[in-house]
Amino acid sequence: MVSHFLLLSGFLSCGMNQPVETPVVLEIKKGKLQRLIPWQAYPADLPAPDTTYADCYALTPLADAHVHLALDGVDFAAARARWNDETGMHHMWQTNLESMARAGVLAARDGGDRQGWAHRLAAQMDSLFYIHTTHPAYCREGGYGTAFAHPLGRNAMPPWGELTTQIRANGSRHLKLMLSGIISFTEYGQVGPCQFTEKELSALVAQANGAGLPLMVHASGAEASALAASCGVHSLEHGYFLTESTLTQLAQKGIYWVPTLAPVAAQAPAYPVAARSLDRQMQMVELARQLGVPVVAGSDAGATGVRHGFGLLKELELLGQCGYSPLELLTKVLRHTWQSLNPDLDPVWPLPALNLYRQPPWQKLSALSADLITILWLGDDEIARTTLAKSHLKFSPASSD
User: Fold this and answer.
1) 144 closest CA partner among 108, 119, 181
2) CB 348 within 8 A of CB 16
3) What is the CB-side half-sphere exposure of residue 35 using CA atoms within 13 A?
4) Residue 197 burial class via C-beta count within 10 angstroms: exposed 0-12, middle 13-18, buried 19 and up
5) What pLDDT score was predicted for residue 400?
6) Residues 6+ away with beta carbon under 8 Å from 312
7) 362: which residues sit within 8 A by CB, 6+ positions away?
8) Which end of the chain, N or C, is more open, meaning fewer C-beta atoms within 10 Å of its C-beta?
9) In sequence order, which residues have a C-beta less than 8 Å from that of residue 122 and are 6 or more positions away?
10) Where does 222-292 show beta strands of DSSP type E?
11) Where in this chain does the record put each Amidohydrolase-related domain (predicted)?
């Protein structure tokens, strides 16, 4: 199998602590990174490297840990109406993936939809994207979440063992639970009651762990967030109005926190309460950084005002306003993000792909949106590059070595 040698101006992986900021050659074989060779010390007995991208800075692909691919981020009602239109759903799915690619986002963890569209369509797609889905998610009958989840009976202990077995069998990669309601944009601090008890959630955590299904839990409010942390869930989604003591638990237990700043930021101009809620959430993210909480980038893409792909760039920008440097975001935060999808992935080389930029985004985060040139897909036998056009995503051979 032939190795490919790529000369680049610089390179950073989320599995690294520091970037390579001098010209470097990447040796890639069978889609995997073999080694980094400083250009100044490049051995004469190796093949001449491909210099097509010698002026580019490479970054391993971005990942979004909280999306809804059955929604478009533009019009919630119109997107839901497409759930009864298979042709419309296929078109929206492709549009959402194209939007992700134009932002350099090649991986995502989907939070589910009631009809399982994301789960079905992900199973039908090719391997260019790494999408984790689940179906169904669960909520309580009468509680928040019926647009995304299957409602369970009000009073009895849910049959978690049976449900986790079914979910595992249908190819789900994780399990999603609605523990609270959503935050109000008109009444500060209001999120609705907890939908499950400590006994019920603890039983689900045990079953999910036994089935190898990471449990992502939608929870906001001090009570629900604390309950999720105390029961040891895999990831706390949202977590608005959580407390410092809950952050301490998250840090001690290594529970991922996905603070989803982007959807509330999108509503903040129209709703003063949303702006106030966002300000508090960002203060807690800053504290989480200081406490060592494994904060994860999840944009809630598909929510109104949050487009797929570019919503993650906004989420990273907002996390940067909480004290994270561009380098921290592209290493520590993105490493946590990839690990929240799959802890077995190699953080140095999570996918056989590279994002190429005109400027190094680890120096200036705005390069993620302003300076993305192309994405290289590194297959077993060839390298393909993307054409990042507005209306389509094309793939063409980048070299014939």
Assistant:
1) 181
2) yes
3) 7
4) exposed
5) 35
6) 62, 64, 103, 105, 262, 297, 299, 301
7) 12, 19, 59, 326, 327, 330, 331
8) N
9) 69, 110, 131, 133
10) 235-238, 256-258
11) 63-330
What gap in Å lies between CA 21 and CA 127, rounded to an integer?
31
Kindly compute the dihedral angle of the four CA atoms of residues 61, 62, 67, 68, in this order, to the nearest 10 degrees: -30
- Calpha distance 104→359 (Å, rounded): 14
CA distance 54 to 10: 9
Residue 320's φ and ψ, nearest 5 degrees, are -65, -30
Per-residue model confidence as pLDDT tens digits over 255-300: 999 999 999 999 999 999 999 999 999 999 999 999 999 999 999 9
Task: Tell me the two tokens of residue 46.
Answer: 């190796």
Terminal CA-CA length for the chain: 11
What is the residue extent of each domain of the chain? 4-60+351-397, 62-341
pLDDT at residue 1 in the model: 65
Query: Tokens 């409602």 — which residue?
Result: 151
pLDDT band at 390 (very low <50, low <70, confident <90, very high): very low
**Residue length of the chain:** 401
Rg from Cα positions in the chain:
21
Residue 36 pLDDT? 98
What CATH class does 4-60+351-397 carry? Answer: mainly beta
Structure tokens at 15: 């599995």
The angle at the Cα of 308, spanning 131 to 163, to the nearest 5 degrees, equals: 40
Residue percentage of the chain with pLDDT more than 70: 96
The residue type at 331: T
Distance CA 117, CA 11 (A): 37
Q: Which CATH superfamily is domain 62-341 in?
A: Metal-dependent hydrolases (3.20.20.140)
Helix (H) or strand (E) segment spanning residue 252: helix 244-253
Query: What distance in Å separates the CA atoms of residue 198 and residue 204, rounded to the nearest whole number?
Result: 10
Residues 6+ apart with CB under 8 A from 359: 57, 367, 370, 371
